[in-house]
Specification:
Six copies of one chain form a homohexamer. Chain A is mostly helical. Chain A is built from eleven helices and no strands. Chains A and E meet through helix 11 of A and helix 8, helix 9 and helix 10 of E. Chains A, B, C, D, E, F: It holds the Pfam family YfbR-like.
């Protein structure tokens, strides 16, 4: 029993790679993903707050930070498997809960158990904070898939992921923060330009000419 | 539909890393594992044959080569999850079968479907070939965990894996090839020696002296 | 200008490797480190709260999550350089502040600037939350160096880092959470045992004997 | 002497990287390559069998599985060197054979030597199985080079490899399985489409509109 | 004290990655960079010599080989930080000098100190050799950024680096070797062509036709 | 034809990994190796010079920098193969020479051909500079193998490499610089101590006690 094992296990999240079994130009760990989701949730919460909503910040941070905790026990199971049937999904959630509970009982002294049971619960509920988490999680996924598409990853899977992430975000399109995202952030992502090698010749010639030389 | 997608998917096995979520000095892909299991099964089959058993080589190779094919669809699910309950295990097997069937129907022309349905079935049955596969699979796992222990990986998980692999092999201890493994191969593994840094000083001094110099 | 650039920059933290220029068995990014520090701060805050302190959770999470934000602009400057002289340290801090300010003015719309200027400030102040951050930051560093020592990294640097991290933690030894760490967590870390290869022979023999065979 | 050394050496194939000395987006080990070649040979054999040929499956699997075994002793020598002169090629083959023989005599007990000498022989002979191996080896090479070209690797070497692989496959164009490959598999490979970043804007707008919003 | 520590520290240069904190398709260490800069300087020196200049080769090699030595102590500080203010730059250079001096005094026996103090000095002075080094350093940087642009790295940073490197080279446009570079080498770099996937279909069809078959 | 291709090929040396086909904790490229050999040769040359020898520095740097150039064409052929027979070794050398010559004729304009033919020649001749190169090459190999042994690499190959490197160095034991190495550098390498995990408990307790606390 011991918090030492809990602290040590944090490093395991650096070793769970998201979207296994596919070539990716840039890999992302669950640790990095959790960091980015929490940062994105922080921004979305700020937008909600400026839009007049009351944000429970402690709750929001707890949900974002811990939202993939169960992957420590289950690994990264491919989504189509996880959701193959309602029965499997239900059983699966039960197993996750059971394993989380056992871990907490094994490693946490009694005085911390209740608070950690609460923290490691599924966070995507109907509260404002649960909905912000659901959106933040998909925004990071959108950026991950965009990063691969932008680097010209030929796997069509990444377009499917992009679409799946966007369609989930759109389910929350009545939220102030989602409106902000759709109106102010997504368009900039789509406008990102590429450097074409052909530009290099133009730029180079211009620079050489300006320096008084010629190519 | 197309065999092209099947051929292309073979490369995905190079991207499924075994035992995710734990620090390892040397990582192994499912592609590499399948290669090694098939080579080990080849040797075990040879021992069985010399021991008087009749080996169906075509079947043995098919089983070994394809034994982790379903991981293409499911990813690498942690064992404790997979076997958390009989019901979950049964459902998982159903999902795997279903997904394999769908993949074959989508990608393989009709004339190849039956043969590939057969090839992608769970191979660890009660036949001699199924039992050789079960042993070969665990021998490679034993070598993987031994490799980490020998490199001084401090994770106790690898000792648990070593024990789990060995105990499964021992279930088949009446097989000729398992006897051979326990008597002729495992002892050499356990006798592997380390190079201690302290030896270096001794060796170095000896070499310098023999060359006529002195340290 | 745009929050898109802010969101995209989060991925750069996955590419800043801590402690560059030294061989490490396991590398850690600033993104992973930030995740772990926030999780550790969460636990330390819980201990403080149970010890009767009033924790401002929003502030604690903000400090932990953003504490290395300036590395986006400066990269990972080696500590001895950063602290080579008071004058250099002061100038560096000014440069960091200046760059952070410029980034916020360039990328954040006016309505978010104040809140992000506050969030990206140096977080290790005299508040309870600032002190928890200082401790959490060093606990993760302690675990990083412990991980290398445990894997037998021959670089003496990691012992120096271990000592430096511990001595900083000890500066806060009057805090409830530091007492908890020293009494309940650190001893478990130090008791971690190694698996010796020699144990394998004993375990293996025992298992084979119990299975009714012999080696 | 010992099969343990043979089993342990299998892991070295995971550490021989194909096509060294060139930037590649995705690296492939000899272990992975051998796995894929065996799987491809399995499919090609099935096509031949359905085309009325008699396939010796045991032989085919042995050839495919072991076809790069000599690289354990020689490493990955660049093809232009290997084939620089007939004399060098001949000497080289002799050295490979000699080293394989020595390894077998050193590590294999007498009762296994003959079977392994046979297994580790050059497999690309005039038999049906030898020709299937020759084709399967080049199909995997074709996929490796296609993968780099598709990911926009600017090295023209990969186009040369693509052409070299295809021209070797074409030498066997009278085989049923090569016809099948040229008619049913290669065209699908060439039709693979890219996702263009510009498509993203279209898809995104469509999805947002369909959800009742607008960008 | 000891040259052993100096020899051992050489390996640390393999662990300092250039341009940290950004996604790169191909990473370069300071060790590799130093090797390439020295090779490029060797060529530029040859051009200067053929152009009638007197090259002090010993000095040129010393400058090129050691030009990034101080990064051992400072790590890779981002350029905008390093040059944020004149005062910081000055202080920074002082710190580098101080640390280099301390290292030499600690690790080198007295008889080698003067020669190494000289060798580890800032090499980019007004001498011919100092100017060749300045150009060679930027040519390697130009190739690094070109490599990323050619592989379609979407980070605009690499275009900025390309421009910054070229503009520095142009400062030396009166040197014989820079003229040679601008007239004979840079144009070939800009003419590098890409292999387009669409070409593959054409090439493939042509090859199949020529072999007497058809696609 | 073009120096651009020569400059671009320098990056290929970053992709040739030394000692392929074996698990290594730390991999080294030919680019890094060449850098380190040149730095070591620089030091050895300094020792020779202080010992009264006349060093041709230009020649020494050229030899060290270019000594593995032919690996660009041949890749990293395993030593036992390369030296399997005198005839093979002779043929290999001829092929290397031929390929180097062809490369120079293809890529270098006529005015640079002679100087580069000279530079890319086998450098380990009987001159002082050739002998310094031979020693420097083996000292870096000694450090590479020492690094693996010190990190507890269980492959006995690295002890063999250590011995092979040392025995070659000892062939030159009459050189001033080898004497210096054996007397002043090697002993420090052998005295390198390990940090034992058990030390941590002692250090930690001491630090806590000194801070006024207790564990």
């Amino acid at each position: 029993m011991g918090i030492h094992h809990y602290f040590k296990s944090l490093s395991d999240f650096e070793k769970i790679i998201r979207c296994p079994g596919k070539f990716k130009f840039q890999e992302h760990s669950v640790a990095s993903h959790s960091f980015k989701v929490t940062k994105i949730a922080q921004f979305l919460g700020t937008v909600e707050e400026q839009g007049g909503e009351k944000v429970d910040w402690r709750l929001l941070y707890e949900k974002a930070l811990n939202h993939d905790y169960a992957e420590l026990f289950t690994g990264d199971i491919k989504t189509p498997v996880k959701y193959a049937s309602k029965e499997l999904k239900r059983l699966f959630s039960e197993v996750e809960e059971e394993m989380t509970k056992k871990f907490i009982e094994k490693e946490f002294p009694p005085e911390f158990r209740d608070v950690y049971l609460e923290r490691f619960k599924e966070g995507k509920d109907e509260t404002l904070e649960g909905r912000i988490l659901a959106v933040a999680d998909k925004i990071d996924l959108l950026y991950e898939s965009f990063g691969e598409i932008q680097k010209e990853n030929p796997e069509s899977l990444f377009l499917e992921i992009y679409e799946e992430a966007l369609s989930t975000i759109l389910l929350f399109k009545d939220m102030v923060c989602v409106k902000y995202f759709l109106e102010n952030i997504l368009p900039d992502m789509l406008l990102e330009r590429f450097i074409e090698q052909s530009e290099l010749a133009v730029i180079t010639e211009k620079m050489i000419n300006e320096s008084g030389g010629n190519l």
